[in-house]
Design brief:
Helix content is 48%, strand content 8%. With 133 residues, it is mainly α. It folds into 2 domains: 39 residues, no CATH class; 82 residues, Cytochrome Bc1 Complex, Chain D, domain 2, CATH 1.10.760.10. Strands 1-2-3 form a 3-stranded antiparallel β-sheet. A hairpin with a 2-residue loop joins strand 1 and strand 2.
Amino acid sequence: MLPAHRRKGVTIAVQNKKGAGLLGERFEMHTRASCAAILLVFLGGLPVQAQDVEIGKDLYKKNCRQCHGPTAKGLASYPKLVGQTAEYLTDRLERYRAGERFGPNTPLMAPRAKSLSDEDITNIVTFIVVTFE
């Protein structure tokens, strides 16, 4: 079961394919970062640490905010990042980093992505997915 969003937190019930609760009960998460950490653990990813989100925030401010805006909604001809999946964002950043040319903004994105490590990409993507709706 996916998380059910509420105004003052997120309630998550994690179930296996047969419908049995993996944790045996529902529990409440009070931050999106905590919610993402639990989901990533149970959906096969690595757990998210609060410092990962903070590092991602700093990297986003340094590398992304100028073009994609303070809330990742895009500016002018720069696309919005909000609402994109983690898989999509990671794929795009990895492809830009590898020097693959696609889309009109490749000349702007490739130099920025080239210096990003796998961990940097993960932290930026985590920040975007966890922070913006």
